[in-house]
Amino acid sequence: MFPPNPAIEEIETCARRLKAQQLEVERQLVAQLEEIDDTNDEIEREQRRLRQIEADYEERSRRYDRAYAALIEAQDRLEQLEEEGKNLGDFIRSEIDKI
């Protein structure tokens, strides 16, 4: 057998250190990838939530528009009824005056 060679031992030590560093970098990379996946999942959840909020808003907006149109129609009808009531009152008074 050959006597121990300090240069080879130093190379082996450096190789072990590099391997340990590589494992640590890979571990950190895996942790970062998991964090990215979690963040992407959270983004997808928020996007779904925002789409639902937008759909709810659009539905409420349509309901509001329909309710507003119905209100305007009801106000117009009320004004029409008030005018008819006034005309009816005038007619009744004129008929009473004839008696």
Give descriptors for this structure.
99 residues; coiled coil; mainly alpha; single chain
Write a concise synopsis of the structure shown.
Keywords: Coiled coil. The protein contains 1 helix and no strands.
What does it look like?
The chain is mainly alpha-helical and 99 residues long. It has one domain (1-98). The protein has one helix spanning 6-98. The radius of gyration is 42 Å and the shape is rod-shaped. The N and C termini lie far apart (144 Å). The relative contact order is 0.04. The mean pLDDT is 96.
How is the topology of this model organized?
Elements: H1 6-98
Shape: rod-shaped
- Count up the domains: 1
Question: Structural class, please?
Answer: mainly alpha
Low-confidence stretches: none
